[in-house]
Amino acid sequence: MKNKSFLWLMAMVLMLSLFLAACNSEQTEGETPGDGEKTSDNGGSDSDDSSDSGSDGSDDQASDEPTQGGTLTYAIDSEPEGILNMAFYGTATDAEIMGFMVDGLYTFDENLKAEPNLATWETEDNKTFTFKFEEGVKWHNGDELIVDDWIFALETLAHPDYEGPRYANVKTIEGAAAFHEGEADSISGIEKISDYEVKVTFDKARVNNLVNVWSYPMNKKRWEGVPVKDMLGHEFTRTKPIGTGPFKMGKVVPGESYEFIANEDYWKGAPNLDKIIVKVIDNKTVVGALQNGDVDMVPVHPTLGKQVEKMENVDLVTYPGLSYYYVGFKLGVFDNEQKKVVEEKEKYANLKLRQAMYHAINREEWIEAFFQGYGSKVNGPVPSAHWISADESELKDYPYDPEKAKNLLDEAGYVDTNGDGFREDPNGDEFVVKFSHYASSNPTFESRAKALTQYWNQVGLQTELQMIEASLYYDKIEKDSDDIEVFYGGWSTGADPDPSALWKSDMLWNFPRWVNEESDKLLEDAIDIEVVGTDSAKRKKLYSEWQQIVNQELPMLFITELQETQGVNKRVGGVEYDVSGSNNPNEWFIKQ
């Protein structure tokens, strides 16, 4: 079984507790729709090692046997925020950088099932878990990892002064709420048994307690004397982070490069590589950097995939993704204090209108045009690579059929009453679809948004497009701004698939403001031990039923799921990918 090094997946699991991680889709479109999800590696820059990092990789005689030494250059195409602490980070690029230096208590296999890493665990009731830590694991500063370090991390996230986004990953531990409110000096549900064993009791039994609890220790001894309120800005977070992973942080040039040096004492075995350097590059230079051998590995946006495929010195690696893109409708207004939808919006309440808008979109053509075919149609809110994905036969397809779209609009009373070529609403009033998409420097964003408006125009639905600055976009959606009616977005599904944070009617991130009691009940039952026990098949059945409801009611039009695409120089060996991400970078090497 491969050891996974994919903090992006952990970030999704650990959760939708991170708003940016789930929805700040594609400022560089690099792709899980979420700015805080994907990871891969780290880097740094050291001109003394440039001779190791630029080979064109065209030597077909290079050995596939692991070799020792050399420097691998990994690139990211968006600037990191520079928060290099798992407890506080908020963007995908920061997670990528940390991916080379940290380990979690567990990882995930190719079926997205949790497997032991720093710790093993036992439970009889899914409420109380006993964790046993690997002995002899060293922090990069030489301290030994013990359970105190994990307890310290949990207490940090639950501390009243904690400013990060992950309290949600500890609040279900018994006593965490009292500690968070300052009513207790410790978390009562945490019981230290020894330096290598700890018992954690949650407030109730749940199917997903394990994968939703925070799994990244913090070196308690190193942080001694640093108040929680000062951690975010501390050098241990910004420029001198440590972990227990295969590489240690070296030279940091914030926003430009990050050097990682092999951890010879790594508990899984010393890495093959001497160094990994992560460079921040402009996304417009990705193709050239790969072609010239300036970088060895870099995520490749699908629009660049065909160019990379033609390179003799680079392999374009594709593997199943867990992200999807959609068009959503504002069906109501949410009150976050009352935790409920307090107002219904009627403009897009007619199901036939939403169905017609779906049939009007030529998804195959659109995917080919704007993602170069590195994706496929999706008819529900779970990508097909995920283990809970409903079978294709269980979901209704909405094929491109403009005539059917027109007939549905006619049936619903949307007809052209004044002869201008566009349909009025059933009351005879002007009807304009106001469609929103986020803006960035990527010119394809506006083009693909305009393509969607043209599909709707062609069936008689007059459509106006507004491109909104990415930094404002999701804030407007979250706050149900009056100028947001129909909107483009993207999400990713985590290893634990519970989509409640996005779809329950009492959740802020249920952006369409869709209220459906049957949907809510299915989502509750799917994590209820009394209903599903620990039977994955039962759980999947409930999620399949839930997907069918969403597929029929269409609070969103699900457009495409994407493959992940990575450019890898042929001189690099030992790299493997599956739906969970890459294998552990300590296995990577430079071919001789």
From TrEMBL:
Signal peptide: 1-22
Single Gene Ontology BP annotation: peptide transport
InterPro entries linked: Opp4A, Peptide/Ni-bd, SBP_5, SBP_5_dom
Region (Disordered): 26-73
Domain Solute-binding protein family: 115-503
Coiled-coil residue windows: none
PROSITE patterns: PROKAR_LIPOPROTEIN (PS51257)
Keywords linked to the UniProt accession: Signal, Transport
Bias-annotated ranges (Acidic residues): 46-63
A Pfam family it matches: SBP_bac_5
Molecular-function GO terms, alphabetical: peptide transmembrane transporter activity
NCBIfam families assigned: Opp4A (NF045467)
PANTHER family listed in its UniProt record: OLIGOPEPTIDE-BINDING PROTEIN APPA, PERIPLASMIC BINDING COMPONENT OF ABC TRANSPORTER
Family to which the UniProt record says this protein belongs: Belongs to the bacterial solute-binding protein 5 family.
Protein name listed in UniProt: Peptide ABC transporter substrate-binding protein
Species per Swiss-Prot/TrEMBL record: Pontibacillus marinus BH030004 = DSM 16465
